């Protein structure tokens, strides 16, 4: 290598996971090792990115410090689950997948009609009771379809059926809700800021809603999907009737089995793209001062990457600060030329395109990432 970077340069590393091969923390470590080999005196800020699903708490704690707090809560099918949330100063990071996640749901029957988000509410309650003033709620990887009703119930929202009986709604019983009381939840969460990490724009119900798009992945057959979707429609009507809030067309309302809508209506949560939440918490613009280059990446760069997720979200804000962004990605698919207009200066692909199967790719992905990083550094 002929070109050598000046010493004591500042680099920011902000990759997403390379799904199926490496999580974001491992990608960060490989990128950091490559930079240190290239410039031993480099100053490196490492921020692994998570989309709100499994691994979100670990990524936040790796990036911002803090500690894990344990709590014993209710799993998606009523079982006891030992879960953790992250505590960073007065901010608590709650990962829905840790309580009502798909991997947990598979152990209990894999039935989104009966699964509950009650434990997520218990985890939020534990965080607030422990002194948190802000909640970052990761929506992703859920096995539920209850519209966040279980979460709301754990925080004091009361749901009554036509006979006036208090009950805990699930995806299969949302249509039985006759009356909703939210005053207790409102008192408990007064003064608490809540941001929900939400990287999809699907509405609560309909052809692109929570049931039709995501419930089949959670074990729902076609008949169950129809019932779940109808119940979410009725749920939205009841929410509007008793709170005055219309969740029927909220972008992201269908996230995590309708948790987006529930968090918006009952918790007053702001639904934000995950990368935006992270950049704000990082104080991104201040972090970029005197930065030589940002390295970001993900498993596949394609047209969907242009919609405001990790690479695009970073590039847009870095462009305003006139800091170059280099994307190191697993593969490139289709025409990604618009990414350069957003602020990405170069794209490097780790997959050489010569592997015979996925196993071979997985076996070599780490050294391929290191190789691509060294190539990228010569263009930084």
Distance between the termini: 14 Å
Low-confidence stretches: none
* Percent range of helical residues: 25-40%
The CATH superfamily of the largest domain is: Glycerate kinase, domain 2
Rg from Cα: 22 Å
Q: At CATH's second level, what is the architecture of the largest domain?
A: Alpha-Beta Complex
Strand content: 15-25%
| C-alpha geometry | globular
With strands numbered from the N-terminus, the spatial order across the biggest sheet is: 3-4-5-6-9-10
- What is the structural class? alpha/beta
Count of alpha and pi helical runs: 15
Order of helices and strands: EHEHEEEHHHEHEEHEHHHEHHEEHEEHEH
Number of strands: 15
GO molecular function: glycerate kinase activity
Protein name: Glycerate kinase
Organism: Hominibacterium faecale
InterPro entries: Glyc_kinase_flavodox-like_fold, Glycerate_kinase, Glycerate_kinase_RE-like, Glycerate_kinase_sf
